[in-house]
Amino acid sequence: MDKKLTLILSVYDEDNIEKIKSFYGEAAGRSWQIEIDPSIIGGFIIIDKDMMFDYSVKGQLEQFRRALLQELSVAGAKQ
Amino acid sequence: MTETSTNLFFNKEVHRLIDHYRVAPKVYNIGFVENVGDFIANVSGLSACKYGELLEFEDGSAGIAMNLERDNVGVVLLSNSHQVVSGSKVVSTGQVLQVGVGYALIGRVVDSLGQPLDDKGKINYTCYRPLEFEAPAIIERAPVNRPLETGLTMVDAIVPIGRGQRELIIGDRQTGKTSIAVDTILNQKDKDVICIYVAIGQKASTIAQLVQVFEQHKAFDYTFIVCSTASDPAPLQYLAPYAATAMAEEFMYQGKDVLIVYDDLSKHAVAYREMSLLLRRPPGREAYPGDVFYLHSRLLERAAQLSPENGGGSITALPIVETMEGDISAYIPTNIISITDGQIYFETELFHSGIRPAINVGLSVSRVGGAAQSPAMKKVSSKLRLELAQYRELSVFAQFGADLDPLTQEILDHGAKLTEVLKQNKHEPLPLATQVLMLFIVSHKYLAKVPLAEVKSYLQELLHFLEMQYPEVIKRIAATKQLDDAAESMLHKAIEEFKVLKGF
Fold first, then answer.
1. Whether A51 and B23 lie within 8 Å, measured CB to CB
2. Secondary structure (3-state) at B279
3. pTM for this structure?
């Protein structure tokens, strides 16, 4: 089993990293790989094997963009 | 709508969405591309991925999960993205592939994903449907009993097609298979039938010609084309008929009648074989994968006549299959023959001898269409198949030059004239009443004394005479679709009158 967990942050912040590590309950006994990716704008992403927990600003903006496009295309067509 | 009011509308919509939008973190199942090539990617991870699930690559391109193995997933790519490379991240979406449906499609030429290929601008879809959808259950269906007139006398008389039927069009290349399907579409003008032509693996120039034909005959008022050309990747060719059927289902479930032409399913099977071999699925007969029957059965089962409680809509499917050297016992032809409700078999020899449509009456059959045939057509065409079969059989013996008795000579003469009457030019479908009149004339041996070379012109003159002098008979047949005793006696009288005028 892959024991490594990946944590992606926009900026390096030791306090936040510790908080996130303690927040993620499944981390016990597993090593963390910290990556810095400014493109996520804010928040963080945890990658655990093939699951990705996206708490990033970029991810949420992307979700909103999709919802907006879908709603607007339907509303526009109905209009 | 002016530009300012459009902007105001969209501003209002955006504000409404922002007000109601709830931000929440999202959990994704992800994987990474191990290797990619020929529109197939092997992806590790994605342990929660489902068969047929839509996957998204990090460059925004999409794929479909087609192979689920213990450690990896075989993904079919839907676009030729050069940014999908080894190591690219793949995210599962939890959704299946959907395609835009609705009236916005009418008059358009679109690809397998519903994107426009013509120059008529963006299509604003209001509704989406999944490409793969369960076929209507038995309880939701009604018997096929309404005719779908093709306008081709030979088909409407001998192999009638009903709404909701699946009738296979089969034959070698260049025998007129596409023409018959196109003529059927042209004949649906003002008949409240929405037509879909699905081009699979065809040349773009062929599609361009077809577009021209539809434009010339104003068929785009009720027709659209779903197109995946020979240059498109195999996955898009594979998806085209499913996408078109999803589009057709939207209309059917609204109670509309739809005609869908799949041109052709042999190329579709070849595209699926290519995809399956690239996915490293084990090859079976003719290197097709084991599920090639299911590939077509699940597609054609979606054609149906719905019961009145379910709206009464229908999808009539005309799949086309190309044979090699007339071999209808090959793998794909036999599969589709067994799935469909009959077949129209085109023969190269007939085509080259000038009999067009080059339909082999002996090998063509419509298993359910008889119940849908109009009473008038049934009355004049009941003996047609037998007469043509007798003619074909006797004409073989007649070739030996033996002396023939008068009865045999009469059968041969009648058969030759019948064949002449059934010949029909491309893109000239005939209305039901004209077909009934033609068959009435020939079946009552009114052409017995007309020389074979003059049959067509004589018939044209006679039909013109009937149109001019007895229009009420034609109107009556067209309106009631019946040929009652009164109409029959009026026709006999009219034809005798014409014979006197003509001299024979």
1. no
2. coil
3. 0.91
Give backbone dihedrals phi and psi of B14, rounded to 5 degrees, phi first: -65, -45
Crossing angle of helices B292-300 and B331-339, in 10° steps, is 30
Give the span between the Cα atoms of B150 and B61, in whole angstroms. Answer: 42
| A6 within 8 A of B30, measured Cβ to Cβ | no
Quote the tokens at residue B146: 């309404």
Asked whether residue B244 carries a pLDDT value surpassing 90, the answer given is yes
**ipTM reported for the complex, 2 dp:** 0.84
Average pLDDT over residues B370-389: 93
In chain B, the N- to C-terminal Cα span, in Å, equals: 67
SS (H, E, C) B468-480: HHCHHHHHHHHHH
Q: Note the helical H segments in B320-405.
A: 331-339, 348-352, 375-381, 384-398
pLDDT at B453 over 60: yes
Nearest to A63 among B14, B26, B45 (CB): B26
Select which of B281, B298, B367, B392 is catalytic.
Answer: B367
Residue B456 pLDDT level (bands cut at 50, 70, 90)? very high
Residue B247 to residue B167: CA distance in whole angstroms: 20
Residue from A52, A61, A78 to probe the interface with B (highest B Cβ count within 10 Å): A52
Nearest CA in chain A to B25: A55
Please answer yes or no on whether B23 and A64 come within 8 Å at the CB atom.
yes
Residue pair B173/B458 in contact (Cβ under 8 Å)? The answer is no
- Pairwise CB contact (< 8 Å): B25 & A68: no
Asked if B46 lies within 8 A of A50 by C-beta distance, the reply is: yes
Least confident segment among A44-53, A60-69, B89-98, B246-255: A60-69
Mode of pairing for the β-strands spanning B314-322 and B257-263: parallel
B389-409: pLDDT as tens digits: 899 888 887 777 667 788 888
The shortest CB-CB distance from B30 to any of A50, A67, A71 is to A50
Closest CA to B145 of B298, B253, B307, B342: B307
* DSSP secondary structure, B75-125, as one string: EEESS--TT--TT-EEEEEEEE-EEEESGGGTT-EE-TTS-B-SSS-----
Query: For residue B11, what pLDDT band results from cuts at 50, 70 and 90?
Result: confident
Indicate the residue type of B451: P
- Flag whether pLDDT at A1 surpasses 60: no
H helices, E strands: number in chain B: 16, 16
Q: Are A76 and B17 inside 8 Å of each other by CB?
A: no
Rounded to a whole number, what is the largest CA-CA distance in chain B?
94
Could you give the number of structural domains in chain A? 1
The C-alpha angle with vertex A29 and arms to A28 and A33, in degrees rounded to 5, equals: 95
Active site residue B166: no
Is the pLDDT reported for residue A76 higher than 90?
no
Name chain A contacts of B9, Cβ cutoff 8 Å.
Answer: 75, 79
B60 touches chain A (CB under 8 A): no
Q: For B343-369, how does the pLDDT look when each residue is reduced to its tens digit (9 = 90+)? A: 999 999 999 999 999 999 999 999 998
pLDDT at A63: 87
Residue that is written with structure tokens 């064949």 in the block? B419
Can you give the residue range of the structural domain that contains A61?
Answer: 4-78
